[in-house]
Design brief:
The complex is a heterodimer of chains A (178) and B (610). With 178 residues, chain A is an all-alpha fold. Chain A is built from eight helices and no strands. Chain A folds into two domains: 1-110, Rna Polymerase Sigma Factor, Chain: A, CATH 1.10.1740; 112-178, Winged helix-like DNA-binding domain superfamily/Winged helix DNA-binding domain (Arc Repressor Mutant, subunit A, Orthogonal Bundle). The longest helix of chain A has 26 residues, at 73-98. Chain A is globular and about 45 Å long. Helices cover 28% and strands 25% of the residues of chain B. Chain B has a six-stranded antiparallel β-sheet with strand order 2-1-3-4-5-6. A six-stranded antiparallel β-sheet of chain B has the order 8-7-9-10-11-12. A four-stranded antiparallel β-sheet of chain B has the order 23-27-26-25, with no helix packed on it. In chain B, a hairpin with a 2-residue loop joins strand 9 and strand 10. The two termini of chain B are 34 Å apart. The chains are: A mainly alpha (178), B alpha+beta (610). At the A-B interface, helix 1, helix 2, helix 3, helix 4 and helix 5 of A face helix 1, helix 2 and helix 18 of B.
């Protein structure tokens, strides 16, 4: 049985197998380019330093193991964000059964000033679903329909979440930090 | 607050250097060996699988590749191969005697005479003799070919199950795709449908055939999302009886011995709970006390509200857990509880003394009192000491003597101060009232005609997420199950026909769809506008866009409080009849918000897949 003979349109397989060997270099590039972005998202989603590290690490391991073929950098970035946000969801689910206390995470970050940490604290107190869309939209600057594709919701649901999330964030920030 | 500040603040978070190093170390050290392993394992599996099994097993390979889960053991049991030959990845899913072997009657597929070779899916190139794929396809009752005009509308919801490529040396290949959809098209009854697409390369010509086959049958063959949803709890309860696990709940741990566990497993098994097709709304927020069945590495959790979650996990080589999937069930907690061992350690004491129920959930406390033969009354108290929904106080106090037939009081905590209004839409009246009571709200229930099932909450006077003082009143509107009077726009037709809303597909009588119909019907739309603008011009800020399949009816709801109802037999023919209505009371924000909540969590979990 000669697999290669039948690859034709299925060239993907061959590419994947051979492509994976040369993967280490591109993992390095990906970590350099997207590491901060993923860590930021995971920290905001998980409010826990160690969990965020785990989520980022697992995302990159998945990146390496699956070695998907990307059409461009945007695709790669979106893939990583999606995987990481799914990891966060898994961890949050797991946690809902195992009672982890959210911790004070921003103190560990040297560059953090008072105002910024207040904004982020307010953000982190919002429910998960708002945190995710707000971060993707305002921090990573994704458009509504791109986010919709990423999280599997309709664009109007994303719009509603953004509107509601923005309002909640504003209220929380005003109430607690001003 | 300026959103740019948010961005600037978030960008101060950077990845710690040691994490970066750790990831790179791990990736660079393991990349080579992982690849080797992957190729080797596939090779071994291919060689070891028995030919009979392979045909069917390989058709399920799509699921295997995508999910990394083992092949369904049912495949094997059906073919009569011994269970110990199940490939290593499938060991956790036990074959059960509950599987019925599909009868072979129906449209017969015959690829044998074509003498083609067949590949399955893009990722798993396996060549099989064509008689085996024929045998596989002929396991199902395909029935008559369905009307493609109706069925093709469901195309977007299809998930590919298998891609079959037939080819020989002289001819271009022909492809067959087998897909399934969870949505139920009209006239197909309880069946799911499977699409068979064939393609002749030379002609560049697609022809689609639509058949409705019983998803239960297909589920027997496929260990993917669908099987999880379609299979009852039987599998996991069998796991439960056999596996090592600990049980704890009700604030104390119960050490059950093996015999006891087997008895519980069997007893629960007999209850036959059906899995849900979508995540129940309350499951997202569910936490607190529950029965945890540790089925190392998987876990089954049953909350007193009746939500049960089966977390299917896999243990990685480094001993960490990976969550493969979660299955949700709605169970009757009373039934479950009745087969579980009692929480108290000795039977003598509890008949004589008031048990310590403080800190337990309401459901558990009630169950325990019921088991003791005590009747009880409930009241709610405001307190910060206990979480809402937990017992804060009892009369008599724990340890005092009680006798059979006594009535005792239990006081359930509700929150103190401010309360957040939840989304009660779609809940049953009882659940919603209980939830609202926990939050410290006073509930007024009114009944209205609605398309939703009788007893379903179809409206709430305060929007979810709003923070109000405890003791505030909230009015819940509950459906009587009687359809409201038909008027224009005829929103009820949304409920009665399959349609798309913002790209999500709904089938006839879908719960969410009925809720949407109800929400729309509760506003006064009697003001018909004569201005009939073209829908093309206004197709921007709609919220609900429903396309009903028999005749096209498109409903746009705009942020300015108008609704456009467009009817046409043929979109291309431009014979549109457009009706425009305005919401007279101007409660547009409220309407949009309620609609949004009804629609927000309807996406099945599958769509989150990576």
């Amino acid at each position: 049985m000669d697999t290669a003979e039948y690859t034709g349109e299925n060239g993907l397989i061959i590419q994947q197998v051979t492509g994976s060997g040369a993967r280490a270099g591109s993992v390095r590039d990906a970590v350099e380019s997207y590491g901060d972005m993923l860590f930021r998202l995971c920290l905001i989603m998980l409010r826990n330093y160690a969990d965020a590290e785990d989520a980022v690490q697992e995302s990159f391991i998945k990146y390496m193991q699956k070695a998907p073929i990307f059409t461009d950098q945007e695709h790669e970035k979106a893939w990583l964000l999606k995987v990481a946000s799914n990891k966060c969801r898994d961890i949050i689910r797991y946690r809902s059964r195992h009672f982890t206390e959210p911790e004070e995470v921003l103190g560990n970050i040297p560059a953090m000033d008072r105002e910024s940490s207040h904004i982020l604290e307010a953000l982190m107190e919002l429910p998960e679903k708002f945190r995710l869309v707000l971060t993707l939209h305002y921090v990573e600057e994704y458009k509504v329909d791109q986010i919709a594709g990423m999280i599997g919701k309709s664009p109007s649901a994303v719009k509603m979440r953004l509107a509601k999330g923005r309002k909640l964030l504003e209220e929380k920030y005003r109430k607690e930090y001003l | 607050m300026d959103e740019r500040k948010l961005k600037a603040a978030a960008e101060k978070i950077t990845m710690p250097d040691q994490l970066k190093d750790r990831i790179l170390d791990q990736c660079e050290n393991s990349s080579g060996e992982k690849n080797g392993e992957y190729i080797e394992v596939s090779g071994v599996e291919r060689v070891e699988r028995r030919p009979v099994r392979r045909a069917i097993a390989a058709a399920a390979a799509f699921a295997v590749c995508a999910g990394g889960i083992g092949l369904s053991a049912h495949l094997i049991s059906r073919n009569g191969a011994p269970a110990d030959e199940i490939s290593e990845s499938s060991e956790e899913i036990e074959p059960t005697e509950t599987v019925t072997t599909p009868e072979a009657s129906h449209k017969k597929w015959d690829f044998v005479n074509n003498r083609y070779e067949i590949t399955y899916t893009e990722k798993d190139t396996v060549l099989e003799p064509s008689d085996q794929i024929t045998a596989f396809l002929n396991c199902f009752d395909w029935g008559e070919e369905k009307d493609s005009d109706i069925y093709s509308g469901y195309y977007t919801a299809f998930q590919q199950v298998a891609h079959i490529e037939l080819r020989d040396e002289e001819r271009e290949p022909v492809y067959f795709n087998i897909s399934h959809t969870v949505a139920t098209p009209p006239e197909s009854g309880e069946s799911g449908i499977v699409l068979v697409t064939s393609r002749e390369y030379e002609d560049k010509d697609w022809s689609d055939g639509y058949y409705a086959i019983d998803l239960d049958e297909l589920a027997v063959f496929l260990d993917d999302e669908m099987q999880r949803q379609e299979f009852g709890m039987k599998n996991l309860w069998h796991d439960l009886a056999g596996a090592y696990f600990t049980v704890y709940g009700g604030g104390m741990s119960v050490e059950a011995d093996k015999m006891e566990l087997a008895r519980i497993g069997e007893a629960i098994d007999a209850l036959e709970f059906a899995p849900l097709n979508e995540i129940p709304q309350e499951a997202e927020e569910e936490s607190g006390e529950a029965w945890h069945f540790m089925l190392d590495p998987s876990e089954l959790v049953i909350f007193p509200s009746g939500t049960a979650i089966y977390h299917k996990n896999e243990r990685n080589t480094d001993n960490s857990l990976t969550n493969i999937y979660n299955t949700y069930y709605k169970v009757n907690f009373d039934e479950i509880n009745a087969v579980l061992p009692p929480f108290t350690e000795t039977n003598d004491q509890r008949e004589a003394l008031m048990p310590d129920l403080v800190g337990m959930t309401e459901g558990l406390a009630e169950e325990q009192l019921r088991q003791m033969g005590l009747s009880f009354e409930k009241a709610y108290v405001e307190t910060d000491q206990y979480q809402p929904g937990y017992v804060a106080e009892t009369k008599p106090t724990p340890g005092e003597p009680v006798t059979d037939g006594d009535t005792v009081m239990i006081y359930i905590a509700m929150s103190n101060g401010s309360a957040t209004v939840d989304n009660y839409l779609g809940m049953t009246e009882d659940d919603a009232v209980t939830e609202a009571n926990y939050s410290g709200l006073k509930v007024d229930v009114e009944y209205a005609n609605g398309y939703s099932v009788q007893g379903t909450v179809i409206g709430q006077s305060k929007a979810a997420g709003v923070i109000i003082g405890t003791g505030s009143e909230i009015t819940l509107t509950v459906s009587t199950g009687e359809p409201p009077l038909e008027g224009y726009p005829p929103f009820g037709t949304l409920c009665k026909m399959g349609c798309f809303i913002n790209g999500s597909e709904f089938s006839d009588g879908d719960k969410t769809l009925c809720l949407v119909s109800d929400i729309l019907s509760r506003y006064d739309w009697s003001n018909e506008e004569t201005d009939t603008g073209l829908f093309k011009e206004a197709a921007t800020n709609y919220v609900v866009d429903a396309l009903v399949n028999d005749a096209h009816r498109i409903v746009y709801i705009y942020a300015d409080g108008t609704v456009e109802w467009i009817e046409t037999q043929d979109l291309a023919a431009n014979d549109l009849k457009v009706y425009r209505y305005r919401d007279i009371d101007g409660e547009v924000d409220d309407l949009l918000f309620q609609l949004h909540q009804a629609l927000d969590d309807l996406m099945p979990y599958a769509q989150y897949g990576e």
